[in-house]
Structures are given as C-alpha cells and as structure tokens.
Amino acid sequence: MAATLFNGTSNSSNDITIDMLDYQYIDNCSNIKELEKILRALRSGKDGYYPHLISHCEDKVRGMNPTSKALRKLNPITRTKDLPADEAEVITNGIGEWKNEIHSNASDDQVNGCNIPPVRQTTTLKAGTKSTVTNPSSKSQRIRSYDYKAWDKFDADKECENAEKQPQEKPRTTPTSKIHRNKKMSDKVDATGLSEYEMLVRATSEKDKGNEAFKSADFEAALTYYSRSISLSRTAASINNRALAYIRLQRWKEAESDCNEVLQLEPDNLKARLRRATARKELLKYIEAKNDLSFVLDKEPHNTRASKILEEVEQNLSKSSSGDASQSSRTGRKMMIAEVSSDEEETDPPTANHCEIKEKDVPDTVQSEVAPISATVNGDDTEKVSKDDKVGPGDVETTFAAEEPHVEQPPPEMPQSVLKIKNSGKELFLSGQYADAAQLYTKALNTLQACADKSPDLDHSCNIALLYNNRAACHLKVGDDKACIADCNEVLILKGMDTKALIRRAYAFEHMEKYQQAYLDFRSAQTVDWSIKQAQDGANRVASHLRDIHGPKWKSVLTGDRMIVTQHQKTTNSNQEEADREKKKEEIRRNLFDSLKNNGNTEVKKGNFEKAVECYTKSMNICPDEIASYTNRALCYLKLNKPVSAIEDCTEAIKRDPKNIKAMFRRAQANKNLKKYKQALDDLNKVLQLEPENKSAHAELMVSKDAAKKEKKRKIIIEDADSDEEAVNISENNGKEDTGKEEVQSKLENIKPTVELEEFGNAWNAVQPKHAVSTYKMILDRVPVKNIPELVTNKTTDHMIVTFAKIARYHLIAGVKEEVDRAYGILSSLSLAQRFNMAAMFLSKPDKKHVSAAIDDLEAALDTGSFTKADVENLRVTYML
Amino acid sequence: MDKPQIITHLEKGMNHTLYDCKWIPRSARFVTLGSHPRGTGAINVFEINQRELQLVKECETPTSFKCGTFAASSLQARNLATGDFKGKLSVWDLENMKSTFDVDAHSEIINAIDGVGGLGIGEGAPELVTGSRDGAVKVWDVRQKDAPVACMVPEEGEGKRDCWSVAFGDAYNSEERCVCAGYDNGDVKMFDLRTMSLKWETNVKNGVCCVEFDRKDIPKNKLVVSSLEGKFKVFDVRTQHPKSGFASLSENAHKSTVWLARHLPQNRDLFMTTGGSGSLSLWKYEYPPKRVKEEDGVSKGVIGSLQYLQNSTISTQPVCGLDWSPDKLGLCVTVAFDQALRVLIVTKLNRV
C-alpha cells in the first residue's frame, strides 16, 4: 500500500519536485507546461495543501496563457436561490413574463394544408459498417498484409486497370458537393399555412441565421437569409442588416435602397444613415452622403466612424468640385493618392501666398508660439519647415520686412520706374503715412498697367496683384474698407487664393460688421495655410460675434461654411494646384494636431501635466476649433490645481460644443475645488440631463451637494474612493485618464487644511495609481513641515521616501523662497521619522537616483533657500547617498 | 464579468429513471421520457410556474422509452415521436396521451431519434430517423406506416454495430437532406439521402455518444461528435476535401463520457456538452479568418477554435438528456441518472 502510494506520487508529478512548489520558483519559471504541471501537483494535494500558493500559481499561469486548460475549474451547482435577490428576481420574472407571452400566443388558430413533398421512395443503403461497396466515393479496401487469402485472389493486372480508371471516377464524387453548393436556397420562404405569429418567429430565426452567416464572413448566405426573413416580415432590423450585407458585397445600389426603406420605417435610425452614407459615398453621391453624415454627427457628435467617413467624403467633394479632370478615377481613395503625388512632383509652389504677413498689431507671443510648432513639424513636411524658418521666432519688425524681399522674385521683373515708386510707397507705409503710400501704389499700378498694355507678352498679373495687395493694406490702415475690399477682390481674381488678400478683406469685412463674409474669408485663409495665427484669431473672434448675434446655431446661418469656402475657391480660383495644396495643408495640420494631442495624452499618463499643458496649447493653436485639446488641457489644469484656468478652458470648449459632457463635468470639478458649489451643481445637472447614466457625474453630484451642505465641518472618508468610483464610466474619460484618481483628488481638495494622523495615513494609502505624485503632493501640502515625522509614524517606506523626494522637486520647480524652503523642510523632517534609517537603507538604485536628484536640485537652489550647503550635505548623509 | 452563468432554476426528483427530455415547442412545458422500475415506460409533461414545476400529465406505457423528438411534427399538432426499448417507434398526441402512429421499427432498443421538416425547421417533408442496437439507421415518414423510406443497414455477414446516435442536417431545400450516425466502435457516417450514398465516414476511436449538426436547416456547416473517454470533436463540414475529408478539432472535457452536445437554437456557434460526472460545459466555436484554403487546386476546410465559456456540476450521475428551449434564450431542461430533472437558465448568452 505504502509502495503504491509512493509510486503514485513520483509517477504523477513526474519531474515536479518539492522545491518547485515554491513562490520564488514559480515566479521565475517561464515554462508554461511546467507551471501547469506544478499547478496540477499542487492541486492534487499530495505534498500538502497550500491554497495561497495554488492561487498564486494560477495567477501566474493566467498571466502567461489566459486560456490554459489547467485553469479550468469545475464550478459547483448554482441555484437561483443562491443568487443575490435581485438577480434571482430578474430570472424568475423573466420566465414568468415569457410564460405569459407564450400562453397568449399559443391560442393560434389552427391553419393546415402546407404543401409537403411526397413520400420518399423506399431505399436501402447497405453501408452500416466498414464495407462501403455501395459508395463509390469511399476508398477502395486495402488488403491487410496478413490476409493471405485475399492476396491470393488479388489480380495485379486488373488492379492496374482499375487504378487507371479511378482518376476518372473521382471527379464524379467531388462535384456532388459542388452541385449542391451551387444550388441556391430560394430567397423566399413558403409562408402558406403559417399564422402571423409563426411568420414572425420564422422571420426572427432566419434573421438569426443571417447574423450567424454574417459572423462567419459568409455574406452571400447572410444575404439570402436576410431576404428570406424580409419575405416573411419586413422589419427594419433585418432590412438594415441586409443593407450591411450588401455593403460587404459591394452592391452599393441595393444597399442604398435598403437603407432608404429602413429610414422610411425608422427615420432616426443612425445605423441606417451611416450605412446609406457609406453606400452613397461609393456611388459618388457625395452631397447626399454628407447630409446623412451630418445628421448622424448631429445626434452623436462623437461617432468616430461617421466623422471618418465625413472626412473622406469632404475630401472627395472638394476634389470633384476642383478638378473635374481627375473625376474619371473611380474611388475616392485612389483619387487622393494620385493628386498628392502630383502635388509633390511640382515641388515648390509660388511663394506669394505664404504666411509672412504679420500686421503690427499681432502680439509678440504669437511669434513665440508659432516657433515651437515649426520645430515639431520637422518630420512631417520639409516644405513647411522651410517656410516656417522664414518666419522665424524674430520680432514683428523683421517679419514685416520679410514681406517685401519675395516681391522681387516673381518671374517678369517689374519695370524699374514702377519698382522705384513701389519702394518709396513701402517706405511711406513703414513710416506710417498710409494715405500717401496708397497714392504711390496707385501711381505704380497705373504705370505698370501701361507697361503691360505695351508689352502684352509679359505677364504682369503677379506684380499687379502685389501692388493691389499692398494698396489694400494701406486702405485698411486708413480705414477705407470698401476700397480695401475692392483691391483684395482684384488680387483674388488675379492670383486666386492669396492669404494676405483674404485676411485683409476679412479685416475690412469685420470692420464693416459683415461678420459672415469675414468669417468665411478667415476660414478660407486658414484652410490655405494653417499656420496663420491671424486667420485663426480672426475666425475665432468673428465666430464669437456671430454666436452673439445668431445664438448657438450660428453655423447654420453660414449655410455650411465649408461648402462656401470650397465654392468660393472655385469662383476665385479654378486652379487645381491650389486646392491640392490646401488639402495637403489640411492634412498636415490634422497630423500635426493629432501628434501633439497624442503627446499630450502620453504626458498626462506619465503625470507630467505641465508638459501636457504645453502640448495641448500648441495643438490648440493649430486647430482652435478642436474641443478635445480644451477639455484635455482643462484636465491638466485640474490636476495642477489651477481650477481657474481649467474653468476658462472648459467654458471655451462649451462655447464650441454646448453639449460637451466632459467639459461640463470638468468645469463642475473645478468650480467645486473653488468652492463654487452652485455653479458646479448647475453643470453636473446639465451633464446628467444629457447623460443620465453617467456614474461619475452622479458621484460628483453627491459629493458636491454634501460639500455645499456642510461646507464648514465635513470629513470625507477616503476609503470611499476605492469602492464604487473605481468603476466609473470609461466613456466619459476617453480611456485617457484614470477617473478614480480624479475622484480621490477632488475629494482630497475638500478636506480641511490640517490633517490628523489617521486621516493622513488613510489618504496616503488610498492614492491610486501609486505614481501619481501630484495627488500625494496635495495630501502633503496640507501638512506643516514639522508635523511630518509624527504623521509618518513608523510607516516609512522606500516608496514614501521617493515620493517625498519627487514632491520636493515639485516645490523646487517654482524657485520661490518659500517653496524651496518647504522642499528642504520636507526632506529634512522626513529623515526624522521613525524607521527612516531602515527604509533609506533599502532604497533601490533607481529610487536612490530620484532622491539624489532632489538633493542636487536643493543644492542648486541654495541661493534662494534659507539653508546652507552644509545642511544639504547633511541631508545627503542621512539619506545614505 | 460578462461570462454566461449556468443557473439551476428548478429541480425535481422522480421515482423512475429518466432518459430524455424535450421542450414542447411554443409553450412553457416540457416532456420527460423514462422507465419505471418495473420496466414500463413513462411520459410526463411538466409546466414551469414561477417557482415550481407542475406535473401536468403522466402516462405509463408497456415499454420503457429511450428517446423522443418533436422535430418532425407540425407546430399545430406538436406530436411527440418516441423510440422505446423494444424497437418500437410511436408518435403520441400529448393532448389525450394516445399514440397516432406505431411501428416496430427495429428488432432492438432504439437508442436515438431525430426529426426534421417540422416546427418550421428544415425544408421538405417531415421525416424521422432512428438508430438502434440492431445496427440499422432508418428514416421514416409518418405518412407511410409499414416501411421506412430509407434504411442504412450493415452489409450482410458483417458484424453489426450498435448505433448510439443519429442526427439530421443539410435540409436547406426540399431535396437536400443528410443523416449522420455514430456507432459504438467510434464510426461516424454521413449519408446523403438525396443520392442515397455514404458521403463521408470517419472513426473517432471511442464510442460515439452523440452527433449533432449546429443547424439542421442550413447547408451543413458544423458537426459535433461526442464520445466516450471525455473527448469530443468539432468538424467543419462545409468543405470536404477528397482525401482528408473535413477539418476538425478535438477537445477534452468532463474527464468522463461526453454524453451529449446540444447547440443553442438561437446561436449555432454555442453548444453545451454534458458529462458522465454530472457536469455541463458551455462552448463557443470561433471561426478562423478564412474557412477554406486552396491546396493543390482543391479546396480544404480550415477549423477554428473553441472557447470554454462556463461549466457547472449539477449532478453526481451522467446527464443523459438536455434540451434548449426553442422559444426562450438560455432556458434548458436536463435529466440525469440520479432520477432528477432540472430546469437551467444560462444567462448572458446574447452577449458572447
């Protein structure tokens, strides 16, 4: 008995020895097979029962292979009564309801008389066992080597003949499968003898089959099943599904007509809209597609698919309007590629409409903000960089001067006399005598016109345009808006999309309070060249005017500004190249914006909120209408405890999208931090109106209400933070930030300024994730330096030391005396805490690096702080560096 | 976790052995078939009320029942076809518990029965198929009383094999139809009823306890074959290769006989297997990115993978009968050799 037992152990666990059943061994083991064996050995309990080790091993296996068979555990029976009361209730009620429903349908009138095929002719197939003579497709019997009798009968010659015959026979078997494949199921179901309820049930089951076929990528079959379902009952759901099947089969026409039908039945079906837009896009019905998409985006502004398709459609739309020549190529994507490549071949477009114009009223900050962008552009487009280099970070004066040099470049040189007049005009302009300058420019124009008349072979249009443009600038300065607009119109006719002219005209329109035209001009200038700050600022400014006048629906007043922009282009400039460039720029701008935003997001994840703010600010300059950057920056400000700036950003975002939930939510948080509970509650209520299920908003609402009520004496138990709130709605925060963290943070801010021992410990431990230094900082900020040792008590850990060091560095960034002193204070008082020496001794290398960096920074800030070099050296010694 | 849960909603112990159970279509009732200790047959009809099972009808017949099906009956009549221990095939009108059709179909016990063409599932005439210990697989049309319409018997002189399971499939139009049969020696044969030929055969090494197509009324798609020794196989029967046949995968489950595999009527890619140790396992089949590959100009099937969704041990004895409700997603009834029947609910099936 003992022997078998012993054998059993050694056999079953084969190469699993006792020392393998160990945490460390399991941790280090990377062989999944071995781990599974260890797990089995552990579970067998032969070497003892270690529940924690088993679960540890399970975790490890799960980490390596979540579908491992070793993880399959047998679950015991679960009865309804074992379930939580509410779940049990749901099940019981569900069955009850179903029963009632089925009862009411059971009393169907008995309909009979289906046309059933006749009875099959009686046949017998003798193929019950191995012998399969009747079956031509089965393999011929192999004679076993020991079956001598059979070998005696074996006729080699005959077999040879047979072998030759066989290949001819074979095809006969395979086609059977093919024939039946080709034989189609009918698209309709014979519905005779079915009651209405039955038809509905059949229709549902056919639709289910369609869905299954669709899932297995068998779209043809799915189409058949959906058609069958529709033949029984025309429900929107199945027609909609069939539309999708058509789309997958690239049968756009049918898809469109199906969608039409669905939309007749359910006008608000967004899926059908989206599908119809897809089909219409392929059918080259761009405008209709656009209408569908804007409908979808109206209802669901964050539908990424819709916006993606819309982007494509708009590209195609502008293409088809600008270049009919390229219309011949079939799909939108191909067109785009072709045009982009042609654009690249043409290397350097005329420099006329680049972004050198900087009016004097543009503040310096604009320049300095443009500069870092040009640095990030680098990888994207070399052309752009060269252009931005021209602009440079220099002062306004130099950029303005830079307006002129390129004037000399255009191919046909200006006649000497004209040039002279023009130069003196420029001098007058620079010295501020705009009226005189305008007169000179008029003179130059006249002379040039005369020259042009004399020698028609020379194309002076460029020069004339330039002069007009300059005169327009003068008129603008003088305040003669009408003349300015007239001149700009001349320029635009002569040269097409000239950003300078566009912007000047926009200014003139703005002065005349024709905001719509101004807005359109600014926007077109912007689409030509994204980097023109003026255009962006102008567009925003005018947009806000328009909003004041027309209310939130001001865009509809513009009757689709973008379309007009494109049409406008068409009228002023049929030059395709121009449109291409514009598109390209748009694209580059997009890319740049995206990359900046992503940078910002990664910084947020890392916890470098300052850097993130920088990124978002840049991205904001590129795409001022993109809400995401505002909301994201607001988040960063929240984290940096700058609620006022956060509120500003949120307000900006809400201006652009009055229904932006994120922005409202964040504004509420910021307001709460400023103790403006009323505003916070207002915002939260709005959020909940828009999205009643938003959990975090609910939670926040509760907190704010509480806070508002007992503002004076309140204590929040931090443990709350890691209960429900960790599961907050992810859609709200786009998966970018950890709302749990936000929650903790916002709660912390509401706690009264001094901290008791227990509270500090709880708060400190509740912080998630563990590298969120800013959150820790907030906790620590409420602690006077001298209290640190007693608060920390004997709980000093290496993590705590490192976090303190990081916080100290945060303080040092400010460079102010109090902050620096506090940084020193934090580090020095921490060293007085109990068990500090022990913890410091076990600091790992990277940890030590953090600490020594903090002390280095302290040393660097010696001048501002009220501590001596000796103090810092002391600190170094106590931290054992 | 959004995993389906297998919940035992109602349980009832009986005083006789239960072999099979079937939902009565379009109702909250089901029927159990079994054998009284004295060797007589038992048909019981139960109805589920909110918190209990109510015995609606019961009937004792001369011979024990082994299996039954509604699948060849019209939705209006809802007649139950049964196979008994003596090889008799009967069709019962459950309203008055009278048989409307009786035939001595086989010389020995009918192990398995299946139907097609009724209940709106499958095109063509309603037909029944029976598999028996006498080795024959017979197809019946209830309009023809005396003889089967098709018969698949072992060659004379060959040893007959015990047929343990039968299933209809491929009934997507009025002509096509096939029968799959599994035998005690591990043979699986697929007969084409239109051409009356053996379309495919294989051997899974262990006795075949259950064969089932994922759906009967579509061009044959998948076939699950469960067997002794805790193994079952899934075949992709869409594409047949002239040499290697159908692509398949094999899975171990239950550590004992896999008695049954039953596909969810509402989703063909989900199925439950029942084990000899009283356990249930829920599986999901996942298709490969491409189901067919070309090999030397001949197309060959590619098998996907199985996902293990959930399990539950509901009994200590083999679970020999399981039927999903065709009307309510996730509702099923099981019978086991511990003489108990259980109504189970599998939750969240629409989310997998």
Which structural traits does this protein have?
heterodimer, A: 881 residues, mainly alpha, Serine Threonine Protein Phosphatase 5, Tetratricopeptide repeat, 44 helices, extended, disordered N terminus, B: 352 residues, mainly beta, four-stranded antiparallel beta sheet, 0% helix, RNA-polymerase II-associated protein 3-like C-terminal domain-containing protein (chain A), cytoplasm (chain A)
Show the helix and strand layout.
The complex is a heterodimer of chains A (881) and B (352).
Chain A: H1 2-12, H2 23-28, H3 32-44, H4 51-64, H5 85-106, E1 123-126, H6 148-153, H7 156-182, H8 196-215, H9 219-232, H10 236-248, H11 252-265, H12 270-282, H13 286-299, H14 304-322, H15 332-345, H16 364-377, H17 382-391, H18 396-401, H19 416-431, H20 434-454, H21 461-478, H22 481-495, H23 499-511, H24 515-528, H25 533-550, H26 554-557, H27 561-572, H28 576-606, H29 609-622, H30 627-639, H31 643-656, H32 661-673, H33 677-690, H34 695-709, H35 730-733, H36 739-749, H37 757-766, H38 773-781, H39 788-792, H40 798-814, H41 817-830, H42 836-841, H43 845-860, H44 869-878
Chain B: E1 6-13, E2 17-23, E3 29-35, E4 41-48, E5 53-61, E6 65-69, E7 80-84, E8 88-93, E9 98-104, E10 110-116, E11 127-132, E12 137-140, E13 150-153, E14 163-169, E15 178-183, E16 187-192, E17 197-203, E18 208-213, E19 222-227, E20 231-241, E21 245-252, E22 258-264, E23 267-275, E24 279-286, E25 292-295, E26 298-301, E27 305-313, E28 319-324, E29 331-336, E30 340-346
Count all strands of chain B and give the number. Answer: 30
- The CATH class name of the domain at 416-562 in chain A reads Mainly Alpha
Count of runs of 4 or more consecutive helical residues of chain A = 44
Give the biggest sheet of chain A.
none
CATH architecture classification of the domain at 416-562 in chain A: Alpha Horseshoe
Biggest sheet of chain B: strands side by side, in what order?
A: 1-30-29-28
Termini Cα gap of chain A: 63 Å
Percent of residues in beta strands of chain A: under 5%
Share in β-strands of chain B: over 45%
Oligomeric form of this entry?
A: heterodimer
**Secondary structure category of chain B:** mainly beta
| Residues in helices of chain A, as a percent range | 55-70%
Radius of gyration of chain B: 19 Å
Subcellular location (chain A): Cytoplasm
Domain RNA-polymerase II-associated protein 3-like C-terminal (chain A): 758-848
GO cellular component, one term (chain A): cytoplasm
Biased composition (Low complexity) (chain A): 318-329
